[in-house]
Known about the structure:
Potassium Channel Kv1.1, Chain A; single chain; 507 residues; 3 domains; 8-stranded mixed sheet; alpha/beta; Rossmann fold
Amino acid sequence: MSQTLDKILIGYVNNKEFADVKFVVGKKKAIYYAHKFFLSLVSAYWRNALYSKGWETKRTRALTEIYLPDLEPRIFRSFLQFVYTRSVDIKGDLVLELRGIAEKYEIEELFKYCDEAFKQSLKNENCLKYYEYSCQNKLEKWTEISIKYILDHSVSILKNHDCFTEATKETILTILNLENLQGFEIDLVKNLINWSKRQKQKYYQNDEKMQLKDILNEFKPSIKLEFLDFNGLEQVSNIGLYSPTIIFNTMMDLTKKYNVNVRPLTRSGAGIGDLKVLLLANCRRGPERIEHIKESVMATGIQNVDIMNCSSQKPSFDEMRKYDAIVLRNRNAENLHKQVELGNDLAQYVEAGKGVVIIAINTLINSEAYRIKGRLQDEAFIPLQFGERVQQDSRELGEVLLPDHEIMDGVNSFKTKDYAHLIGTQDVNGGTIIAKWSNGFPLITEKTKQENFGTVVCLNFHPCSTKITNDCGKAWLENTDGAKIIANSVNYVGMKWYNKQKLQQKN
């Protein structure tokens, strides 16, 4: 059987056969063989160097020897792989190193490849480090990509205290002063205190006069006391960052204004209680279950939830757009033509930047009689493919692939009474799996089809708990965190839209 061209080419990476160039790389003088022809095809730099007389080389029989003592062998090996195949598996910080090679050796294709790899390699734990690298090397495009990632994931990044520890003061100030930065103020305070402790240990260990409040003084304008709860106010009070009078007055204002000592607020001042949510649902077993789903949506602070029965009504797009998020539990066999219209309008709703949470078990059944149709299905907005409903003995939360995700905030357990009832597919339609069942099937997935579109989240479990349906084996146990998963999902897709609108109004 003949080999494909890709396999043939990758076979010549560091292959001595027909090689006419020998690279001696790094301090340990690792040897790599290459071919002038391939190097000259990808790089004008190497074409000029290898075929000009001015290049310092050493002829050894048929080989040209070139010394590159400042390069790491693993990086050079990846560079060679790209030369021969125009692709390379870029993991971790390798993208930063390859970007330097692309610049030094004038390889436009590698520039573009690294740009895309950089975007894909950004994670909560490395985004601040990558932002700093982009700034230091004056890479404007990468800086923009980093900032966008930070803003899109700011809630979970602020919860990931470790990623702030090694950041520079300039980076933290820049990030905190972004107008549309989201996240909870208590997480910001924890990050700043942990960062100041690290700075104290690193630079001021023997300076008894230097206190945490002195290190954090420059950050005071970035802290919004009115968005802290009592716990957060106590923390900034303990390090002496604000006077006792200011802390006391803020606590009194909180008590008077909300009559509670905790109100979850994002840094824009928007509370999840401000969201307007439409629960678009039907249930042949009676309205009690729909009311129960509404209770779950409101579990972490959402106060404005309207219910519309999608068996008897189909909201127009103009009606939908009044809401910041929609929860869809649809099982409508009576009006199949409305399934297409509903799918078209929901696609338009997501294109307008708003978010949808889909209860998959009732909406994505692989049946013409029940499943959602129209553009929402046809144009792959949904992060879970249609499938058969299956029952599995494995019935609890399994691997959490994105533990810092906003949807997983406060989720410690999830378990059904007797069995898992789910859409039996592994195909997430180009979306992202946030968490899985213990049997490996997707439990929570998300997808943002295009940059300015809203996000669609799929929850692949029965939406009711044993509180309302104790005789149902597929119901989740009410002492586990099913309600948090549902509420967090709605908060997540809704606040993304809400905060974007607030920013546009401000500008």
